[in-house]
Each structure stands twice: as structure tokens, then as C-alpha cells.
Amino acid sequence: MLVDKIRNNSLCDELQLGDTLNQSAAHGQRARFQLLLSMLSQNVCDQAQFSMIKQAPTQIEQDLRSRFQLPVSRPLKAQADEYAVQARWSESLQAGDVAKIRLEQALGGYAACAEEKVDGLAEEVINNLDLLTRLKHQLSQPEQSDINTEVSGVEMYKILSDFDYSKPLSVRYFN
Fold first, then answer.
1. What does the pLDDT look like over 101-147, one tens digit per residue?
2. φ/ψ (deg, to 5) at 117
3. InterPro entries, per this entry (predicted)?
4. Domains of the chain: which residue ranges?
């Protein structure tokens, strides 16, 4: 009754799929045979809709940029020649003129922030580190070959014992 109707209109098990494959091959129904055969494949890439030629990611990005009429992508961090612009923005920000910064950024295509790093860390972080951690960080940097990498325990003890821990730490900016 209802079970027979469902079984006649849809595939329920592998036995029914095999019988339908045999009937399709016997009656010359090639499209139905290929459809049923694709259901047996374990690999999804064997199916026809997945055999399209894939485009390179850069080509896709360029196509999307032209389709949505987007401008050329901007860098996230300021380049070396944009530091003067960043300095002007700092003055404008202190004066409370944020609209001027937004307008200049939109018209000039400048990056929103400048990278203020010393040895891979922000300058404020380096200034707030204790002396021992600063020395360890400097020694871990491979590019700096001019710094004496041999620090004996006596020298380290002398440096640490001469350091005045009673003074409050402060951050100073030099322009």
C-alpha cells in the first residue's frame, strides 16, 4: 500500500538501486543509468558537476573587484614614505579633527595605522619591560650581531643589583 508506493517512486535500498540500474541498461536509458551509477561512487569528484576548471585565486579576486567596482586594495600598515602623513594625523587627532583624517585617508588611500615596532614588539611594550627581560629579548634576536651576546652571570648580577627598583616606571616619548 503506502510502503509499496514509496518503494516504487524512490530508491530505498541498494537492492532496488541495482535492479533499477539493470533495467536502465536493458532499456537503453543512458542518462538515468549514469545518474544511478553516480550514486554508487564514493568519490564526489567523479560526478560531473565537480569537474569544472578552477580559476586561480588572484584571477577570482580581480574578477570580483571589477564586478563590484571596488578600488585597488590598500595596505593595512603604513609604508615608510607615509610616516609624515601619520604624524600629521596624530596632530589632527589631538586637535579633535577626526573628519580631516577620514577625508585624507579616503582620498589618498593611506593605511590607517603605522607600525611602531622595535625588534618585533611595540615600542611601549619594550619600554615597560624589566631590564632582564629586555636583555633576554635582545639576545634572542638573530639579526643583531653587533651586540655582545656573551653575558656572564657576574655582569648580569651587577646590572640587576645596580638597577633602582624603587623608582616608578614611566613611558617617555621622544619626537
1. 888 888 887 877 766 665 667 777 777 888 888 888 888 876 645 55
2. -125, 145
3. VC2046_fam
4. 2-50, 122-162
